[in-house]
Design goal:
Blueprint (H helix, E strand, L loop, with lengths): L3 E4 L27 E8 L2 E8 L7 E5 L4 E4 L3 E5 L9 E6 L2 E8 L2 E11 L5 E11 L5 E11 L11 E3 L7 E4 L10 E9 L2 E9 L13 E2 L15 E11 L4 E13 L15
Parallel strand pairs: 1-11, 15-16
Antiparallel strand pairs: 2-3, 3-4, 4-5, 6-11, 7-8, 8-9, 9-10, 10-18, 11-17, 12-13, 13-14, 14-18, 15-17
Length: 278
């Protein structure tokens, strides 16, 4: 039997802080030399985001034509296990809404395709980040891969970071209200990952990026009634984790999707849930 190298999921230094220290949060640094801008228009407005060669981003600006406002829906979004790339990597625009790039980390050679497009709900946008991981060694490399997202969205009424995991789907969300209404705009962000095995999703109080334990799967911070919906406002984060194993001399694809929107939702049931539970 071949041996396996395990690349553990570890804390991101800027995010490894207690829940009570949320006011002192610091955005993680993007690669200074390998960044690119993505932008897409829709009948409802526009979304723009600056991504780096490892798929990190710290701002996602959404413009809504209806009220002429621009909101930032993301404080920090990071993939990895703590992918501080071994080199700055490279990234270039294919067009205004797609990039290609690559970097090396955890012993893997990684190609990254990032694409921004309009989403399934009017006023929403979908960022798909496809990591093609090549193992140049003869030994399997395994890692607990995850997408971590800290949003900090805030409604006009003062609600913030309402966590929600619809069942039995694959998406997990943060919203600026627990009861959307069709006559107001609801802000939301959601994540979904594919590839590998043992999907684990959790909504936590800010701001620790830790491996997701099996007992935490589908838990939502602030849920006191068992409906996987936060009952109060607080500073919260999303983590969606999968176990990836890349055999020697082979390639595995890991994909993360981020849905960002400012839309007229009449209920939480209008949010995508994913095709199947896994």
């Amino acid at each position: 039997m071949s041996s396996i190298l395990f690349a553990p999921l570890v804390l991101v230094g800027a995010l490894a802080m207690s829940h009570t220290a949320a006011a002192a949060k610091t955005e993680p640094a993007l690669s200074r030399t390998a960044v690119a801008s993505l932008m897409v228009d829709s009948p409802q407005g526009q979304l723009s985001v600056v991504v780096d060669s490892a798929g990190r981003f710290t701002d996602a600006s959404i413009y809504t034509a209806e009220d002429g406002s621009t909101k930032d829906l993301v404080f920090a979004s990071i993939a990895g296990p703590n992918w501080e790339a071994e080199d700055n990597g490279w990234i270039r625009n294919v067009n205004a809404h797609e990039t290609r790039g690559g970097f090396s980390a955890q012993g893997l050679q990684i190609d990254l395709q990032q694409r921004l497009e309009t989403g399934p709900i009017p006023g929403s946008y979908l960022l798909t980040q496809r990591y093609t991981m090549r193992n140049p060694t003869d030994t399997t490399i395994a890692a607990a891969m995850s997408r971590y997202l800290d949003s900090d969205i805030l409604s006009d009424e003062g609600q913030r970071d309402i966590g929600f995991i619809p069942g039995p789907g694959a998406w997990s969300y943060l919203l600026d209200r627990s009861e959307p209404r069709a006559d107001v705009l609801t802000q939301f962000v959601g994540i979904w990952t594919t590839g590998g095995q043992q999907r684990r999703a959790v909504v936590r109080g800010c701001c620790e990026w830790l491996a997701v334990e099996a007992i935490e799967h589908r838990m939502v911070d602030g849920d006191t009634t068992g409906d996987r919906l936060s009952d109060s406002s607080d500073d919260r984060t999303l983590t969606n984790q999968r176990t990836i194993a890349v055999p020697g001399r082979q390639t595995v694809v890991y994909t993360t999707r981020t849905l960002l929107g400012r839309s007229h939702l009449s209920s939480l049931g209008e949010l995508p849930t994913g095709s199947k539970p896994d």
